Amino acid sequence: MLPLLLTLALIVASVVGLAVWVTLWSRVLRRGFPFDAVEIVTTSDGAKIVLGRLKPRGEPSALPPVILCHGLAMNRHAFALDPERSLASRLADAGRDVWVLELRGAHPETRSAATRFSTFDSYVEVDIPEAIAFVRTATGADEVDWVGFSMGGMLAYAFLGAARGQGVRRLVTIGSPARFAEHPRGRGLLPPRALVALTGRLRYTPFRALALVVAPLMLRRVPYRITRAVRPWNYRTPMLRAVMANSFGDVPTGVTMQFIRWITQGRFDSNDGRRDYDAGLADIRAPLLVIVGSRDRLAPAGVARHAFHQAGSPEKEFLEVGRATGAGREYDHLDLVLGEHAPDEVFPAAVGWVSRA
Description:
Blueprint: H1 2-29, E1 37-42, E2 48-54, E3 66-69, H2 87-93, E4 98-102, H3 120-139, E5 144-149, H4 151-160, E6 168-174, H5 193-199, E7 204-205, H6 207-214, H7 237-246, E8 251-252, H8 253-265, E9 288-293, H9 301-310, E10 316-321, H10 335-338, H11 342-345, H12 347-354
Parallel strand pairs: 3-4, 3-5, 5-6, 6-9, 9-10
Antiparallel strand pairs: 1-2, 2-4, 7-8
Helix pairs in contact: 3-4
């Protein structure tokens, strides 16, 4: 009996200690962002999405508003973390009306019962079209430009392709794979089976809390091999910790399990298998810029290039950011939007593409 009591006491102490650790460091590392407005939108199926707005700085552009969409396990701060150096701020400085989308379930405060059983398809069928409709109504614009990072680009591929979505004038995807069949490290992306089974029992995958647990431990010299999505030396230590503490969000477990299935099967399709998002790439017509990192281990250039070649866009360009193409350094996944040098070596291409008439 005593060993059992000691074990339970140790477990309780560990849980309490972890909670205290997260609470204390969240107060130190959490940041806000000076949006001009933050809209919480209830979708047609009862979920909630968030749209943070930055109005044009200086002379407003005649071009349509821009929607920025984050990646898997992230939130709106992926594009709006540093007020001076974020992509949202850069676009606002160029005179654009910028809307940063946060998908359903990313933050506990905007969850609802409708979010529990959501999948990637929920984003495609509800969150994306209703976010676009909201922005068009709020601004009077006929169309929007779309910039998606990682999954945010995959959502655009699915929405504009297989789902036959409308309302996007120009499209930029950054570090966005379209399928995992040719991924050189595909199987290595999968968690252990026991963890997959545990994840399947949860309503949400708690990436937000997990990132905050490790945030205080992050250093510029963290070994590259244990950081799956960043090259740590592309950040100053305070910024690296801020990225981990602020940019990650929770994910409805249905979305997580859908990604696990894609990686396992090498597919990119709807959860019921009826809609082939990969095949739908050929139906995309929006002018497309695909940006990839030269050392991206989550969305390698070869995998992202598949979407570029398959897309039916009559106007499209492919940009691999790294030393071979004139950048001062190599780029991993998160480095493309959050790295210290991204404002100088990545953002100009994205801003330039959506600045074309």
